[in-house]
Design a protein that fits this description.
This protein is an alpha+beta fold. It contains five helices and three strands. Helix 2 packs across helix 3 and helix 2 packs across helix 4. The chain is globular and about 35 Å long.
Length: about 160
């Protein structure tokens, strides 16, 4: 059964909807100048933002990256941030997030990934490869217990 759907929405609408639904980071491009607005194409409950204004055809699922590291941006990084926050909240019995879940892999995300790897008995290098990714996927729960594990499989390196 093909569950592909095509929607044409403005970037601001997508950002607002993603935030309101508590989903992944709003990755709308601020410099979108296409006359038709941004395109979001949903396929099997995964979404990718298209800002080209061109029609997208076929399967839009992107390849899962080999690693996530400093300088990367996107849904996979957001999943890593959610997992780190989830473990931090349970480890320290805290309700706060230590990382901003913005989908940007900066120095803070790098440092917290190294912390996460240490408590998960992994090589603490701050780079998310397949071993760390397996743990991230297992820990991908949002602040209110929302389960993002299946969603994150599409964006995080894993075996």
């Amino acid at each position: 059964m093909n569950t592909s759907r095509r929607l044409t929405l403005g970037a601001a609408t997508i950002a607002l909807a993603a935030t309101a639904l508590g989903g992944g980071p709003a990755l709308a491009a601020a410099d979108d100048t296409s006359a038709t607005g941004s395109r979001i194409v949903a396929h099997d409950d995964r979404a990718q933002l298209r800002t080209t204004g061109e029609e997208t055809k076929g399967d839009v699922s992107a390849a899962v990256p080999a690693v996530l590291q400093k300088g990367d941006k996107g849904h996979g990084v957001w999943c890593v941030q959610v997992a780190v926050n989830s473990v931090y909240r349970s480890w320290y019995n805290s309700s706060k997030n230590v990382l901003t879940e913005d989908g940007v892999f900066g120095q803070s995300t790098h440092d917290w990934v190294a912390w996460y790897q240490g408590i998960r008995n992994l090589k603490a290098d701050g780079i998310v490869g397949k071993n760390t990714g397996d743990k991230v996927i297992g820990d991908a729960f949002g602040k209110n217990g929302v389960d993002y594990r299946n969603y994150c499989r599409s964006y995080v390196p894993h075996h």
